[in-house]
Design brief:
Strand order of the largest sheet: 2-1-3-5-4
Oligomer: single chain
Structural class: alpha/beta
Strand content: 5-15%
Largest sheet: 5 strands, parallel
Radius of gyration: 22 Å
CATH topology of the largest domain: Rossmann fold
Distance between the termini: 59 Å
Number of helices: 10
Helix content: 25-40%
Low-confidence stretches: 95-101, 157-169, 251-267, 288-296
Shape: globular
Number of domains: 2
Length: 322
């Protein structure tokens, strides 16, 4: 019988309500046949060399991941960390945004190269009750041809675990918090606007001229400016407080395209992106006003021409620290 691996990515911080929900889910699944259970630190904070990431990369079968992120952000964070598979559809609906659904996975070159396994991404914020998440696990297990214990057996197993001091604390080797962009390749058109916009060398391209996050830890904490120049909302920052940037999907997202044709009108999106970029530069000691020179990361980029009126206007907006 094929094993279904269930991974719970613990929330950053020490919110007791989140810890209680995590413990209830884990307690109900710990004795379930056909389930390989694992607890890892906050998924977004994992980096190369962490033993939890090495373990996740070793999983080759179907995978369910619980995390305190939007489902789209979970899936593409995993993808960027080298844990890849096809998007498994879930039936959980967000209470705050029931219409916020992601379209079906589109056939593309990226999908054709993926392993033949499914990854289901479950957002823990979708329900405060463990049973809601456990029902979805049972549905997924049925879809995968696995047999899980009935709710009563799961409840008895959880009760037995609690009587022997069963608890799940934060795993060892908790990594430091990270901040970096995540790319949704179902949306990305590889226009490379984000490559040109970023001044910190975060992005690059692979041998096929496809966008990659080449140096994620070069990103400046709190700066999501590159996400605002992406026409298709393909660039996410999973820990941002604005849902559209954090990975919320579907019709509920807001338009955040930075439209250069509206530059002279000083659009709100432009002002915000310019302010975020300027703040990140100042924090890094590279304020544009200091005359710092930057180079484009786009391959084959030509030498910059003398600044025209449009360039000067962008510099004025950057220097204004709006």
């Amino acid at each position: 019988m094929e094993t279904l691996t269930v991974v719970l990515s613990q929330a950053p911080g020490h919110d007791p309500r989140k810890r209680e929900l995590e413990a209830r889910i884990l307690a109900a699944l710990v004795h379930a046949p056909g389930i390989a259970l694992s607890v890892v630190p906050h998924l977004y904070d994992l980096s190369d060399g962490h033993k939890a990431l090495r373990s996740l990369r070793a999983v080759t079968g179907p995978l369910v991941v619980f995390a305190w992120l939007y489902p789209r952000a979970i899936h593409w964070t995993l993808h960027q960390l080298g844990i890849r598979g096809h998007v498994g559809e879930t039936q959980l609906k967000r209470r705050a945004a029931a219409a916020d659904t992601e379209p079906a996975e589109k056939p593309n070159d990226e999908a054709a190269s993926l392993p033949r396994r499914m990854i289901w991404s479950l957002q823990l914020q979708e329900s405060d009750t463990a049973e809601t998440h456990l029902r979805e696990i049972r549905r997924i297990a049925d879809e995968a041809g696995l047999a899980l214990p009935k709710p009563r057996r799961a409840a008895r197993a959880a009760a037995r675990s609690q009587t022997v001091g069963f608890r799940f604390d934060r795993p060892a080797e908790t990594p430091p918090h990270r901040w970096y962009p995540v790319i949704d390749y179902n949306r990305c058109g590889h226009c490379l606007e984000c490559v040109d916009f970023c001044l910190f060398g975060v992005f690059g391209v692979d041998d096929n001229q496809r966008l990659i996050v080449e140096n994620p830890d070069n990103c400046k904490p709190g700066c999501p400016a590159c996400a605002r120049v992406c026409e298709k909302n393909a660039v996410m920052f999973p820990m941002h407080d604005q849902p559209a940037i954090a990975g919320a999907s579907g019709a509920g997202r807001v338009k955040i395209k930075l439209d250069l044709s509206q530059l002279l009108g000083a659009s709100e999106a432009l002002q915000l992106a310019a302010a975020e970029k300027a703040a990140a530069l100042e924090h890094a000691g590279l304020g544009l006003a200091s005359g710092t020179k930057t180079k484009s990361r786009r391959p084959g980029a030509k030498k910059r021409k003398p600044k025209d009126e449009l360039d000067k206007l962008v510099d004025e907006l950057d220097d204004a620290k709006l």
